[in-house]
């Protein structure tokens, strides 16, 4: 399930619901960034609003770079940024156990996701429409699929490449 390859996690009570947190959070944050990046295009008919929203436009590239770096931490450690947020806050509110550490397939997925978001941020900063929107849109779709189905493209790719 989504790169949780340590023995015993498949039978952990409530893990299925908690495992959805990370990819869905990743998709939600990416959607937020794309929305911020799209706002100037959608208000082009009202130039007076553009000045007020320029901060969002400029912030979008930085937003994606920061989001990418935070997402990439899941590729360097056995817990993603989103897992840490859940474990420090929401698990206490919902009175659930923490999201367990994840294995190499999920770490691989977090690293790919982080890189995609950084590329998207660079695209926004450089004014390259395709470089800005394509990687972020792909990440949002793949993270949503992982959150809804527990099938993670990057974890499957890791197994295909590295596990023989």
Word description of this protein:
This protein has one domain. It is 76% helix and 0% strand. The protein is built from seven helices and no strands. Helix 2 packs antiparallel against helix 3 and helix 2 crosses helix 4. It is globular, with a radius of gyration of 17 Å. The N terminus is likely disordered.
Explain briefly what this protein structure is.
The chain is mostly helical. It contains seven helices and no strands.
Helix-strand layout with pairing:
Blueprint: H1 15-19, H2 21-42, H3 47-76, H4 81-94, H5 104-126, H6 129-149, H7 153-162
Question: Strand percentage, roughly?
Answer: under 5%
Average pLDDT level: 76
Listing every helix as H and every strand as E from the N terminus to the C terminus, the arrangement reads HHHHHHH
- The termini sit apart by 18 Å
Question: What is the domain tally?
Answer: 1
Number of strands: 0
Helix content: over 70%
Put simply, the count of helices is 7
Shape: globular
Largest sheet, in brief, is: none
SS-based structural class? mainly alpha
The low-pLDDT segments are 1-10, 40-57
> Rounded to an integer, what's the Rg over CA atoms?
17 Å
Keywords:
164 residues; mainly alpha; disordered N terminus; single chain
